[in-house]
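Quick illustration, no need to memorize.
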Amino acid sequence: MKPDASGVLQALFDVIEDRRTNPPPRSYTTSLFQGGIAKIGEKITEEAAEVNEAAGEEGDTGRGHLAEEAADLIYHLMVMLAHRQVKLADVEQVLAGRFGISGIDEKESRSK
């Protein structure tokens, strides 16, 4: 059953975590976990470059392509999080803690 769009990120993360603990042999996610940080990181870098490229494309087609590449990037980032056993809720908590704080101020506070 496909989740509705409002819960799809958590549903996807749940599937990814399940692949980590119960790796099916014919699974792309399983192959990423087997490659470890190096392989997952390589895919994140590749997908980030594709997001940048798609962002420069014009019109509805360009926006659609950007959404597709962003989805690929988010998926691979989630695989890295699951590989390192960082929960999506942990990331959400960090983001929630930054609400109401200037991005510039928040960044400066991390470098002190």
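The chain has a mean pLDDT of 93.
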